[in-house]
Write a structure and sequence with these properties.
By secondary structure, the protein is of the alpha/beta class. Helices cover 22% and strands 27% of the residues. The strands form 2 sheets. Strands 7, 8, 11, 12, 13, 14, 15, 16 and 17 form a 9-stranded mixed sheet that branches. It has an 8-stranded mixed sheet with strand order 1-2-3-4-5-6-10-9, covered by helices on one side.
């Protein structure tokens, strides 16, 4: 089966198309404005804007399924009443257009309870260590993925109903299943790191720009972590998604590629070959390799030209 992974130009969302068409959005961080307010930054609620942005992506892509790749909500460990209402509305509105799969991130504690009852569409909450859908591996990025994410060798999900709402389920984990063919995932998609690059204009003024990263795994490093498990070397292409919420900020990878500021075990362990990672702006411009960007600043004027 041929699979294509394509970002939507000028949107922080992508389409994965194989036997089905999947819209993927990461790091919505609904309710983030409440944390900003506690630091003296007062901005209005962003939930309607973010919902409208997501619905625009749905209209552009006409997906068969929608994947929310972690950090749908923002505040931890608790959830404000308004944030809980906004999360339920956001997911419910999307589920009216297509079934929704949620891969929880580190900010999504208790998200299952927020989605219990009264929602309109089909919603599945998966485990924090990821899922495979239509031959593509998805993980938020804050935890080590299941080893099967790198191969899906004879693997499928165990689906367990967990809510009184009949259309909501939790896919808690993988299980080995005899008789299924070995399938190598060619693509792996994750969020969590909010990748950006810091660019300079002709006067030396800096700006922060959200970007996409496309990289390969170092399977020797991965093998060290999955020492006692079966790791298939599939040479998968990793796509690291920019944050959907523009308020999130991010990590300037062209300045922090080798620092301790990297987020998530795949990046901090060196399991991702960042030096050769390809960098693309949200509007589709290639900036070259991350290694080259980290060696010399790139002018913002070049990006605009």
């Amino acid at each position: 089966m041929s699979i294509e992974i394509e970002p939507i130009i000028n949107e922080c969302a992508l389409i994965a198309e194989g036997s089905m068409r999947v819209l993927v959005i990461a790091d919505v961080h609904l309710g983030m404005e409440h944390e900003l307010r506690s630091h003296g930054i007062n901005i209005p609620s962003q939930s309607e804007r973010l919902l409208n942005d997501a619905l625009r992506c749905v209209e552009l892509s006409e997906p068969d399924r929608i994947v929310l790749l972690g950090d749908v909500k923002h505040n931890i460990p608790g959830t404000r009443w308004q944030e809980g209402r906004d999360v339920a509305k956001f997911v419910s509105e999307l589920s009216r257009r297509a079934p929704v799969d949620i891969v929880p991130g580190n900010h999504d504690g208790g998200i299952g309870k927020l989605l219990e009852g009264g929602l309109d569409g089909e919603i599945h909450v998966h485990g924090t260590r990821g899922m495979i859908l239509d031959g593509v591996a998805y993980a938020h990025g804050h935890a080590w993925p299941e080893v099967e994410m790198f191969s899906s060798c004879g693997t499928k999900f165990r689906e367990t109903a967990w809510s009184k709402a009949p259309r909501v389920s939790r896919n808690r984990r993988f299980r080995k299943t005899d008789g299924l063919p070995s399938v190598k995932c060619e693509y792996f998609v994750m969020g969590h790191s909010h990748p950006v690059v810091r660019l300079l204009d002709s006067l030396g003024r800096a700006s922060i720009n959200r970007v996409w990263l496309r990289a390969r795994f170092d399977y020797d490093v991965l093998a060290e972590h999955y020492e006692h498990e079966e790791l298939c070397r599939s040479d998968a292409v990793l796509t690291v998604m920019p944050a959907f919420n523009s308020l999130c900020g991010g990590l300037a990878f062209n300045e922090s590629m080798r620092s301790s500021n990297l987020l998530g075990p795949l990046l901090t362990s060196g399991s991702v070959m960042l030096e050769s990672a390809e960098v693309y702006t949200v509007d589709g411009l290639s900036l070259g390799s991350l290694g080259d960007l980290s060696k010399s600043p790139i002018s913002q004027d070049l990006v605009k030209s």
